[in-house]
Give the backbone structure.
Amino acid sequence: MLAIPRGGVVVGAEVALVLGAPLDVIVPRKLRSPDNPELAVGAAAHDGTVSFDSSLGEELSGDPRYLEQEIRRQMEEIARRMIIYRGRGDYPAMEGRAVVVVDDGIATGSTMVAATRAVRKMRPRRVIAAVPVAPAEGVRRMEREADAVVCLYVPTVFYAVGQFYEDFAQTTDDEVVMLLREASSRTGLTPLEGYTSGDVGP
C-alpha cells in the first residue's frame, strides 16, 4: 500500500488495516502553472518521473525556464518529505507484487499519474489506483495508467475533493509519521516486508 501524503495517508492507513497490508508512502508533487498557482499543469515523483497534462497546452507553452525551476522546487520538497516520512532511501523490491496507490481523492489526477508511473518503474505485478472520490474524467485518466481503478464515488458535479469530506483539515507531517508508525506496529512489518499476498483485488 503506497499512500500519497498527506491526506492520502489518512485514507491509506484505513485501507491497509482492512487488507492487513504494509503501508508506505510515495511522494508526488503538483507542478504549478506560472499564471495560476492553483492550477496543476503536471506532477513530479521522487524518482524524477515527470508527467504533464496534455490538455493544458497553452499553459505548458510558456517560459521553459519556469517549468525547470518549478520541477526543481518540487523535487526539493519531495526529498524533504521522503526523509521525514520514510527516513531511508530505496524502496523494498516490488517485483511480482500487487501495489495499491491510494489518495484521498482525484481532482486533475496529475499526482496520481506521476505516482503510478513511478511505481511502474519498480516492476510490480499489478498497479491499482484507489480513491474515495473522483470526477468521471479523473477515473478515465487513471484507467489509462493503472491495471485497475477503485473509486467509491463518481459524482456528477465535482468542484474539489474537499467538498466530499465532513472534515478536510490539512494533515500535518507529524500526523503522517504517526500513522505510518501505527500501521507498522499493527502489522509488525516495515513497509512491504514479508508481504506476499498480492491478491488485493481482481
